[in-house]
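Page header: ASSEMBLY MODEL / three components / 830 residues total.
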Amino acid sequence: MTSAISVDRLEVIFDRFRALKGVSLDVQPGESFGLVGESGSGKSTLLRAIVGLAPVASGGIAVNGKTLGPRRDKAFYREVQMVFQDPYGSLHPRQTVDRLLQEPLAIHGFADSEKRIERALDEVGLGKGFRFRYAHQLSGGQRQRVAIARALILEPSILLLDEPTSALDASVQAEVLNLLEEVRRRRKLTFLMVSHDLAIITHMCERLMVMQNGGTVENLAASDLVERRVTKDYTRNLLRASDGFVRV
Amino acid sequence: MSAAVQSRRDWLLSDRPASRAQARLGRAYVAWRRFTANRLAVVGLLIILALVVVAALADVLAPYSPTIGDLKNARLLAPGAAHWFGTDDLGRDIYSRIVYGSRWTLYVVILVAIIAAPIGLLVGTVAGYAGGWTDAILMRVTDIFLAFPKLVLALAFVAALGPGIENAVIAIAITSWPPYARIARAETLTVRNSDYIKAVQLMGASPFRIVLRHIMPLCISSLIIRVTLDMAGIILTAAGLGFLGLGAQPPLPEWGAMIASGRRFILDQWWVAGAPGGAILIVSLGFNLLGDGLRDALDPRSGDQ
Amino acid sequence: MSALLDVEDLRVTFPTRVGLVEAVRGVSFSLGRERLGIVGESGSGKSQTGRAIMGLTPPQARISAKTLSFDGIDLLAASPRERRALRGNRIAMILQDPKYSLDPVMSIGRQIVETLRTHEKVSKAEARERALAMLEAVQIRDPKRVFDLHPHEVSGGMGQRAMIAMMLIAGPEMMIADEPTSALDVTVQLEVLGILDRLVSQRGMGLIFISHDLRLVSSFCDRVLVMYAGKVVEQLKASELSQAQHPYTRGLLNCMPRIDADRHPLPVLDRKPEWAA
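Prediction written out in full:
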């Protein structure tokens, strides 16, 4: 079986700074894979390198068995889409939801855009009432739903999620996580999800990779974390930190 | 009645627009409310509207011909009932000349805006988005244009192209796009790395489409503001060229040229130069007030209300 | 235990285009020399409560309260000068992101020295000594080096420690910390909280810890106020969080994913209009 995403000894260098130091990973089709780490660990850079937003210095990336060159073609973006962290920054401030959703359809020449936009909005639980609103007329959670709708409207098989809920309130986070799980089940999507929160990754993913300073710390299954079967000190620290403050 | 007005306002300000048109109108209405909250801006708008009306109805409003005067009986008459702003040395009614001159002022202003703003917008957004060599080359060209004093450069162009109002317009347009390119580039640089532009890139959009449909609309409002504020300067440059004899040629009733020809009598017959001077002053002021109001209404940074 | 801060029926109102909006609607509590947590989601009025006490509410907003007194001083009746004297000297505040609260063009050490010298008459040499000691107290390993660094040259965690050092140098009696660790990585977050905890208990200060993170607050504070829509919906001891009564508090606790619980889908909060009433 070919992997949905296969990353082989990937190096990313920004102006001499090595943001990724030879990271490899393999995500199976339909799997949900998590990347955990603190800021500067390179977890977001890995996502950006896959979609072509970060300069790859060496190493290889393959999606659905196809090795990617330095340029991504249109067909690639119909397979892979991404949801950004900041719902306030990822929607164009001068465009209505309708325009935002129309754009990918226009670029890829879909004919039945009316129906698709309505269906996409229904799917993320927004409905027709939101279609002609501007981003500033939406709450953070609603914006993130629009961003998810935009990512799904091209019917990709792989969704990259860059801390999709870290800017949201806890109660809204639960709603968005539930939505993501639901669309994944319905569309049999492959997820590659980045978060600094171990609990979110264990909740959402089957396997995960812990990252630090642009490198891999260890690969785990979510069940390993639940049973606290971790081998590296760094992961143990993260686990302890996620329990909250302990007075000494 | 007032209930109907109220419900229309609610419809415009609705947080839940039901159609594309309602969303767009609502946005325009919010900008309009912000604009009208500034009284001076409304005064500016009225001045500019008055200019347009005067220019459109010049044939009706002007009692005399702007080019043919009464050399025998009406030379250099002081302002009075027959000639509101007096007459000039060729016996032409100055009021009529100013009324017709408004057409030339509008002509200059509109043509310059139509030529200079799109050039600046295109150069600026392309340079800002492309970066690298494209950016370096385009911006150095811009710098070269910026390095000359505007009037001197315009003079050089007119000298090369020959005097005349069309050439004056071209010369002014060529000298006034660089600041617009700068603004558009600065604006582009602030948005090109934003997530919403990245998101469009990830849709597979071509650079051309991104610049045209996603970046340009964001630059347009600051450009409109800047162009409006520059209008006064454009009118003055046109008047300056006219004054130097390189713009409008006699007997065209262009305001700058009128001042130039009135200069000889400025001490004894002040109205010959004073009346067109006053007209330039009022229209320039109008554009400046309008520009300030537009800045409040269109400022992209207050776009989120 | 005498109350350090008394708040009764605090209201903060903002004028907007559509009329007056009450961000804080009648909040009452008192603070002793303890750690009090204020928890709520965005728009709950938790930050505006802290700002109102600190006197940092935007000028167009209106504040009213039956009582708002710090150590017997009526804060609403105090002149701007008196409030300025209180700020920094007896009441300190730490904000979320040190990047925005530290002066970018002044070295960290100088900022701490300046703060100290505006509140106390001390010589330059002594101020420097005390600033270095303070940097050491917030567990900065090489205080002499950090003293001369500018805010952009240090990491987020280091910046927040410098901020705490600056806030504590004048020896305040009460501190308001508004999301002091939300911009930090989890492991750094705990270090900073540890430092804060130690200094607060050593100096016997009163602390108001404002956060959106119910679990973090309850593990750090003695007492927790839960705010919703500008009101306090529940007040409880941090140790008794699991016995929370109000459906909002319970919902907030429940909706977070947990490592050791497999719940699909996550329970979501069903907001009832009567909570805001």
